[in-house]
Amino acid sequence: MYKYTSLSIAFIYSLFFLCFISSCSKEKKSNKETIHIGTKKEEKKTEPQNASTIPVILDNKGIGPISSITFEDHVNTELSDRGAQLFKAKCTACHKAQKNMIGPPMVGIYKKRSPEWVMNMIMNPEEMVKKDPVAMALFKAYNNTMMINQNITEEEARALAEWFRILKE
Q1: What CA–CA distances, in Å, run from 50 to 27, 47, 75, 141?
Q2: Residues 35-69: pLDDT tens digits?
Q3: Which of 29, 41, 90, 142 lies in the 20 to 30 Å Cα band around 151?
Q4: Is residue 161 within 8 Å of residue 85, measured between CB atoms?
């Protein structure tokens, strides 16, 4: 009964298209709110999901070549500086000194782990994750992310261990 001109059909399609676009933009706004909420949850997450399952065993030396290490009273700044450079070059893809990332932070590490354990983990991550209870718990707590073997020498591990001593919480 009604005859639609091509102009009125174009108007109807344009109106439909605008309604469709506006409904999509409203949906995007609600997604932005969801993303914002998710970001807040991530900001609050400073510990791994299973942090309570990670044992603190200070007499655990780990599995590897390091059986004993004694720190001197004063930090060896030359060794510590080398450790800081090594950390930047080889570790920062997964670790931050002060906060969680893919792996745990290094600040305060000696309140949780022995220096021998730390050096053995750095030098021997595969075997540690297979056999050491603390390394296994860390592996699970950090989303089953395996620490990459960087082929760190004992001297480099010692430099990293010295640098960890100066990190302040």
Answers
A1: 35, 8, 33, 5
A2: 333 443 343 344 555 666 788 889 999 999 999 99
A3: 142
A4: no
DSSP 91-117: TTTT--SSS-SSS---TTGGGTS-HHH
Give the type of residue at 136.
Answer: M
Average pLDDT over the chain reads: 80
Pick from 121, 133, 112, 132: nearest CA to 58: 112
Q: Residue 166 burial by CB count (10 A; 0-12/13-18/19+): exposed, middle or buried?
A: middle
Return the closest-CA partner of residue 70 out of 25, 127, 135, 115: 115
- Alpha carbons within 13 angstroms on the beta-carbon side of residue 67 total 1
Distance from C-alpha of 117 to C-alpha of 136, rounded to nearest angstrom = 13
DSSP labels, 60-76: ---SSS-------SS--
Determine the residue type at 150.
Answer: Q
Rounded distance between C-alpha atoms, residue 19 and residue 6, angstroms: 20
| Cα angle, residue 143 at apex, residues 140 and 146 outer, rounded to 5° | 80
